[in-house]
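Hi L.,

As promised, Universal stress protein family protein:
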Amino acid sequence: MSYKTILAYFNNDKQAKELLAVATRITIDNNAHLIGVYVVPKIWLNPAVSMEIPADFLSSQRQYYLDEAERIEALFKHETNAAGVSFEWRTLQSPDQKIAPVVVEQSRTADIVILSQSNEATDTDYSAEVPTAVLMESGRPVLVVPFGQQVKNMGEYVALGWNGTREATRAAFDALPFLETAKEVSLICVGSKKKTSSSYSVMGTELAATLARHDITATIKDIPENNSPIGAQLLEEATMDGGSLLIIGGYGHSRRREFIFGGATKYILENMTIPVLISH
């Protein structure tokens, strides 16, 4: 199994190079087609303050995003041409100030979506909600690349957070292309020894057997639950001994049109230091 259509979403040029390096590496490994996407928002002003804004403000703001899209496109085409991969670039226009629906729609026809970890210093009001929306609404696995971190040995040492839920199951099988090529795979079960005989520790054994039929050797790690958040325990185990990819189910719900992540998912997305593949 392999990914054949990969979509990389870019929202700023400060993280573009590292994001592109990861996306290009995965494209090469899977002999895939890479689609680069940048969405130009419709600039919006609160009517209450619009009278105080200079007349050329809207056009200058729009030009800022167009210029950034052009810079990232140039980098994207240079790197993908040099790598010799199949690619295309899309600069898209959002019909309103929300760009997340545009990215979600683009994502639904890709095998996997790659984007950057949210960062308050670089996210705009237009782009901040994109990672959450893509994860919760696209129906596709999302690989989140940590902000400001150099990614090394991508996918060689893989940790899969496992608790037997629907989300964890989706993540495990969405990640098969990574699992099949990894040097080492660990199934991390946090607090499983507190469960009954039908616990996810037992299901971890069943999953390991299923993965073995894909020629994937997985080691089960039963981690006692402690006072640390489960997300912290998963990250600690995943990064131990040079871990380079964490796979988890994404837990959350919608409340008044806003997506609220569960505690472990939220912690990992905020504190990750290695790429994290998430499925919902």
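DSSP finds nine helices and twelve strands in the chain.

Thanks again for sending the construct details.

K.
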